[in-house]
Design a protein that fits this description.
Keywords: Signal. InterPro entries: To_sf. By secondary structure, this protein is an alpha+beta fold. Helices cover 22% and strands 36% of the residues. The strands form 3 sheets. Strands 3, 4, 5, 6, 7, 10 and 11 form a 7-stranded antiparallel β-sheet that branches. Strands 1-2 form a two-stranded antiparallel sheet. Strands 8-9 form a two-stranded antiparallel sheet. A hairpin with a 7-residue loop joins β5 and β6.
């Protein structure tokens, strides 16, 4: 059977990790009947349907559906930034991020350069963590606890996708390596604790060079998107296309 070219919603746009190939087919681990999903299948051009499905999909991730890992809250171990021209470096550690489940689907795009498709997400995130500032020539770094709000971070994700027929005679989507680019619509807001000399020195540095906040926001948002990607991979490895996507001729 020759499949025509189709487009599909982003909830399946990521690389499948657990696939085994056999004579051009996908070998699935289980052939048990699929349970009904709590959202209807969508056409790729029905943006409102895709938005409703995405909202439900985030709750499925947080409930561990299909073995997916919760993403809200998410823990990011560390993010670092070196500023050689200032002889200074910054790091965030043990970052706790919330708000991912309210990520919004802004746009679906097709026929991009190189045959790629894409999606744009917008996220408002709240995070807490430990921030450190190291200065050349000073033996001990400055430390503080930071609370940051990221407003309207746009994640532009592009990919190339293919459809393969599984040995269960169902169609599955295989996506090539994705690219994630993040843009901040607003400078993140923050406050530091405790009210100490270290907090004051770090605050002065952040106020003088707000690109530091942009860098942290971009890296944290991108890391979160990669975690979401891992869940999409698991989902699309187990769920045939027909359960979440409608072909244009249906």
């Amino acid at each position: 059977m020759v499949l025509g070219r189709v487009h599909f919603p982003f909830c399946v746009v990521l690389v499948l990790q657990t696939l085994l190939y056999c004579d051009g087919q996908i070998a699935q681990k289980s052939y048990d009947p699929m349970p009904p999903l709590p959202f209807p299948a969508c056409r790729a051009d029905h943006i409102d349907c895709l938005r409703r499905s995405l909202r439900t999909f985030f709750f499925l991730m947080d409930s561990g559906h299909f073995g997916m890992q919760p993403v809200d809250p998410a823990i990011i171990n560390s993010v670092a930034l070196a500023l050689p021209e200032l002889h200074t470096s910054f790091s965030l550690r043990r970052v706790n991020v919330t708000g991912a489940r309210w990520t919004k689907l802004m746009e679906r795009r097709f026929n991009l350069e190189g045959g790629k498709s894409g999606v744009i997400f917008s996220s408002d995130l709240h995070l807490t963590g430990q921030i450190s500032m190291e200065v050349a020539g000073r033996p001990e770094p400055h430390h503080a606890h930071i609370t940051m709000d990221i407003h309207g971070a746009e994640s532009n994700i592009t990919y190339i996708g293919n459809i393969l027929r599984g040995v269960d005679n169902e169609d599955y989507i295989v996506i090539g390596p994705e690219r994630i680019a993040v843009r901040n619509m607003r400078i993140p807001t923050y406050f530091l604790q405790p009210n100490s000399e270290d907090s004051y020195i770090i605050d002065e540095a952040l106020q003088q060079k707000q690109a530091i906040l942009d860098h942290f926001s971009n890296e944290i948002t991108a890391a979160l998107m990669h975690s979401i990607v891992d869940n999409f991979r698991l989902f699309s490895a187990k769920v045939p296309i027909k359960h979440y996507y409608k072909y244009y001729n249906e």
